[in-house]
Specification:
There is one protein chain. Strand 14 (514-521) and strand 15 form a beta hairpin. Among the domains are: 58-120 and 128-149 and 190-208 and 294-404, no CATH class; 437-645. By secondary structure, it is of the alpha+beta class. The protein is 27% helix and 22% strand. Helix 3 (100-121) packs parallel to helix 5 (162-176). The strands form seven sheets. An eight-stranded antiparallel sheet has the order 13-14-15-16-24-21-20-19, with no helix packed on it. The two termini are 46 Å apart. InterPro entries: DUF2264_N (IPR049349), UCP014753 (IPR016624). This is DUF2264 domain-containing protein. Residues 57-409 form the DUF2264 domain.
């Protein structure tokens, strides 16, 4: 059995990458330049009978896949051209020529996620004058050819690297469409490719979703009659199942994020269908059971319009978030609302495909909409974004499956949710809270974050990707500013005179609509707070207790609003009893912040270059200096919202009454119900 020391598995990854690809001070040949941008994706001949909200059917999903693949193939003029795209400035790789072979490998095998399902139905597919199947048939043998610029060195005695990831992805596509990708290869090329891929698959991995890359490589070549390491395959299968926590969520060691869905919850059921049902039926059954759990929880994380939340690392994979939904059609469960799941899925596709900033150089940007450097990780290259192509693996689900034939509907947004109310769905095993807000049709999530920046040398598990107090589909997260500009988090002035956010949260409880966490400042464990979030029909009530042992300056921010094209960012104030509401309006939404207790200053905060939607943005911040000997240590705040064009009433701006007690705070809501927060 392979043993791992306790080590950050992504740090381990990059160390191994550098071993496999040593730094070389050589110039990287620029990618081919392609003139002109692609027009926005259009739903041609929409079917509003089957899909009254999006007009999209399976045919339109095929059109969307072809659209994205056409952008990639606009860089291919002959069969020898690599899938190499223009690099964006910033931390994404490659920065040295040693990483270029892996960059090309990513572009090749990740575009195959889009191509393989299309080739299954249309083996003669041609784009930019190139026969797509012929292109991949020509490129795959190059991976094992030492004379080729695309050559991938066998692993040797090295550890896991990005090559393992891409070879695992390739094995998935080989399972999907062997008749167009594998069968046409010569036996010599098959053997060489098998040796190269197995050198990685039959070896060490990273203790996360990465085990599936080994699993798929070993499984594919076993299915093809090659000798493989069955004990290692079985070990990685069991360890992958051990990541399951319940309610559809796998833990990706240590995080909860979309990897639970576009990795574990896609790989497990897919492996079961192509290999596991025959060879390991009990393990296959376990993956399918875990998959079924997500149906009753995960869809609530999407907005009424089907928009996904910007949350977690690798967010540039975007539409990969919907990749499990089509496969729910394989479950024998007549309680599943397939029309709602397809409405979500098509809505997420359109969220990006019809955003004018989504493509640059005909390729999706590294960001959420346009390029957004704060959300980029160092392990991503430009072609990495095609990991989102896993959404199109759903095209493998037959045309007559209920996922495709059911009539689109809004699910609980139409049948259960009522205006003026808020709906929470707590995931006990993972401590995740999903909240739905019918008044604005938004979804929200609170989840794990407990990572020190000092230990997070790549800088994403401790960053804004995870450390916000909550994440909302209507308000994509904004990066922190150096001068204390903060959105949906606290920041504290530390010993280096820097504004430091919360990163180290410890979940305490969820009871009676109150989500409780404790937090400690990484650089000073004497700065601590007890946090309580209460989702309301039109926002969030925060009732937080300062427990710091030292004097500290602190700030708290609401969500942020981007400046939208052709609209103003307006700000206003409204007197509410003994306090004042600060309101920001961007023409789509309004945010209101109302200080209730403890705070000394409220201010509008403008920012540039911090928001993923536009260059200019605005939020509202609170500020205070806490002294341990202060008479009160309760900091209470209302963070509210409405759609633009609607007026905040006084009742909406003050929907609660607070009463401090010797043990905590009594909260009385507008409907007369009470919540007791005991500190």
């Amino acid at each position: 059995m392979i043993q791992f020391k306790k080590i950050n598995h992504v740090a381990f990854l990059l160390v191994m990458v550098l071993v496999v690809f040593p730094m070389e001070a050589q110039e990287i040949k620029p990618a081919k330049q392609v003139d002109g941008e692609m027009p926005l994706f259009q739903v041609e001949n929409p079917d509003f009978k089957t899909s009254p909200y999006t007009g999209m059917t399976k045919k339109h999903w095929e059109d969307a896949a072809r659209y994205l693949l056409a952008g990639a193939f606009s860089y291919i003029d002959d069969l020898d051209d690599p899938m190499k795209f223009p690099k964006l400035p910033g931390k994404s790789y490659p920065h040295d020529i040693g990483r270029v072979p892996t960059e090309k490998l990513e572009g090749l095998v990740r575009t195959l996620f889009v191509a393989a399902p299309l080739l299954k139905k249309e083996p003669d597919l041609t784009l930019n004058g190139i026969k797509v199947a012929e292109y991949y048939q020509h490129q795959l043998p190059k991976l094992a050819d030492p004379e080729s610029e695309a050559f991938i060195k066998p692993r040797g005695n090295g550890g896991p690297s990005q090559n393992l990831v891409e070879y695992g992805a390739l094995a998935i596509s080989l399972f999907i469409s062997p008749e167009t990708l594998w069968d046409p290869l010569s036996q010599e090329d098959k053997d060489a490719l098998a040796a190269s891929m197995l050198s990685y698959g039959d070896g060490p991995t990273v203790p996360s979703n990465w085990k599936f890359f080994n699993i798929f490589v070993l499984s594919f070549f076993d299915a093809q009659g090659y000798e493989v390491n069955k004990p290692l395959l079985e070990e990685y299968l069991q360890k992958s199942l051990d990541h399951y926590r319940g309610q559809g969520w796998y833990n990706d060691n240590p995080a909860y994020d979309y990897y639970s869905m576009w990795a574990f919850q896609v790989y497990g059921p897919m492996w079961a269908s192509v290999y596991g049902d025959t060879h390991y039926p009990e393990i296959a059954k376990a993956f399918k059971t875990n998959f079924q759990d997500l149906v009753y929880h995960y869809p609530y994380m999407f907005s009424e319009d089907g928009e996904m939340i910007m949350w977690g690392r690798s967010i540039s994979y975007r539409i990969g978030s919907i990749s499990p939904f089509p496969f729910t059609g394989t479950l024998q469960d007549d309680t599943i609302n397939f029309g709602w799941l397809r409405r979500i899925s098509s809505g997420t596709l359109l969220q990006f495909l019809q955003n004018k900033n989504f493509l640059l150089d005909r390729i999706p940007t590294l960001g959420f909409y346009g390029h957004f450097e704060p959300a980029v990780q160092v392990y991503s290259a430009r072609g990495s974004v095609f990991w989102m192509g896993k959404a199109f693996l759903g095209l493998l689900v037959p045309d007559d499956n209920p996922f495709w034939t059911a009539t689109e509907n809004l699910g609980p947004w139409d049948t259960t949710f009522e205006k003026g109310k808020v709906y929470n769905k707590f995931q006990a095993a993972s401590h995740i809270l999903i909240t739905d807000y019918p008044d604005i049709g938004a979804a929200e999530i609170r989840a794990w974050c407990h990572e020190k920046k000092a230990d997070d040398w790549q800088g994403f598990r401790s960053s804004e990707n995870y450390n916000k107090l909550s994440y909302n589909s209507a308000f994509p997260w904004q990066a922190d500013g150096e001068d204390g500009e903060i959105s949906m988090n606290y920041v504290f002035k530390n010993a280096k005179n820097e504004w430091e956010p919360w990163r180290l949260y410890t979940f305490k409880s969820y009871e009676n609509g109150v989500y409780r966490r404790d937090a400690v400042l990484e650089t000073n464990d004497k700065v601590t707070m007890q946090l309580a979030d209460i989702p309301l029909p039109n926002g969030i009530l925060r009732v937080d207790r300062q427990t710091s042992q030292v004097t500290v300056q602190m700030r708290l921010g609401h969500y942020a609003l981007p400046k939208l094209e052709g609209k103003e960012l307006k700000q206003s104030k409204k007197k509410i009893g003994d306090t004042e509401a600060y309101i920001v309006d961007n023409g789509e939404y309004q945010l209101a912040l109302v200080p209730l207790q403890g705070w000394g200053k409220t201010e509008f905060v403008s920012a540039e270059g911090l928001n993923p939607v536009s260059e200019e943005s605005k939020t509202i911040n609170l500020a205070a200096s806490f002294l341990p000997q202060a008479a009160t240590n309760i900091y209470a705040t209302l963070m509210l919202w409405k759609k633009s064009g609607e007026t905040f009433t006084e009742a909406e701006l003050m929907p609660v009454n607070l009463k401090n007690t010797s043990t905590g705070v009594e909260v009385t809501l507008a409907d007369g119900s009470q919540k007791i927060i005991l500190f």
